[in-house]
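Data deposition worksheet. Section B asks for the primary sequence of the deposited chain exactly as it was used as input, without tags or linkers unless they were present during the calculation. Section C holds the resulting structure in token form. Section D is free text for depositor observations; keep each observation to a single sentence. Incomplete worksheets are returned to the depositor.
Section A, Depositor: J.P.
Section B:
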Amino acid sequence: MENTNIPTEKKGNIEDLVAWQKAKELAVTAYKLVGSINLDAIIKDKLIHSALEVSYSVARSYGVKQRAQSLENLYEARECIFEFKTAMAIGVDLGYITHEQSAEVQPLVDHTDKLVSGLIQYKEDARKGKVRPKGNGGGNYRNRDNDGNNAAPDNFGNTIDYASSPVSNF
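Section C:
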């Protein structure tokens, strides 16, 4: 007899969310960085903790039903990105981290920040009842960036290309 109680695959798994993927990549990169250099224990702990907390907060935001709690978790993720940036800057200023090492990590930090900011903007817009136009943009809400892609500024001054962010499963 065939088993008919096979669960169906859930649409929109956390693993599909680019913000979570990048946050996880940031955590792995932070571990590799602190493992490769002689670093003060306090700064080392802050780099690891803040990078891990970014991915954990994004995951928590995905796992809750209430939009307010999801937004709170995303804001926590963004706070942790700033903590990571601060710890990196202090590590550079103290000579523990080279400018080259910092420059290698910075694009990943910035990309993660933009993705998390995009999710925050998406949730804020949904909370305010704003609906994104479908198709090739429209109205005053979306603008085109220099490459002709649909883009809009978020609440933090970043320009988010919603077409390349998987916010639709949020």
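Section D:
Confidence is low (pLDDT under 50) at residues 1-10, 136-142, 162-170.
The chain has one domain: 14-128+142-164.
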